[in-house]
Design a protein that fits this description.
By secondary structure, the protein is an alpha/beta fold. The protein contains seven helices and seven strands, in the order E-E-H-H-E-H-H-H-E-E-E-H-E-H. It has helices spanning 50-54, 72-86, 99-103, 106-114, 116-121, 154-157, 174-181; strands at 27-33, 36-41, 91-96, 124-127, 136-139, 144-149, 163-166. The protein starts with 26 loop residues before the first strand and ends in a 10-residue tail after the last helix.
């Protein structure tokens, strides 16, 4: 039995049990589209322990640690997503020391398990960035999740945010961390 009480193999991905198991999905028909039908997965997430406590935490700085595969990243990304839906117009940043390593780690979880349904229903969209703006996910309510790396910090560190999620904070120096905290001043989130 894996995290969340799911049995190995229930995730539909052989050998990929872990965080995925704590977020089982069922399917619901939405109706015909262009002669076919659309199947929508219902977003389900059942955090446990410290991951559950994180969702209601309002502390100004939080560090989450633990063994691999225990749901730390997923819990942080779910909190960020819920905040974007709850506080219209807020700005968030998903950050890693090196931007290219984010694409193959945290963003996979973000796209496949957290924001996937919002992308399908039009509640959110991906914007690939430009010379003026970094890559970001935009919510219909005006909230934005910017994607960045400290190796390309010009676009991201010249802006303000309500929340910053640093994946693999152990990669950052103390100066990196303190520089990030100076960006937390957008003011849409009340804590």
């Amino acid at each position: 039995v894996g995290p969340g009480g799911a049995r190995h193999g229930e995730c539909g991905r052989p050998g990929q049990c872990g965080v995925v198991l704590s977020a089982m999905r069922s399917r619901t028909r939405l109706g015909p589209v262009h002669g076919g039908s659309v199947v929508r997965r219902i977003h389900r997430y059942a955090p446990r322990g410290s991951a559950k406590a994180l969702l209601t935490c309002k502390a100004p700085e939080v560090l989450v640690s633990g063994p691999a595969g225990t749901g730390k990243s997923r819990a942080c990304l779910e909190k960020l997503h819920l905040m974007c839906k709850k506080y219209p117009g807020m700005r968030a940043l998903i950050l890693r020391k090196v931007l290219s390593s984010l694409a193959s780690t945290g963003l996979v979880t973000w796209r496949n398990w957290v924001i996937d349904q919002d992308l399908l229903t039009g509640e959110g969209e991906y914007y690939g960035g430009s010379q003026e703006e970094p890559a970001q996910y935009r919510y219909r309510n005006g909230s934005v999740v910017v994607i960045g790396g400290l190796d390309r910090s010009i676009k991201i560190m010249s802006s303000d945010y309500d929340i910053i999620y640093v994946q693999e904070a152990t990669e950052l120096t103390e100066d990196d961390w303190e520089n990030c905290t100076t960006r937390l001043r957008y003011g849409k989130v009340p804590y």
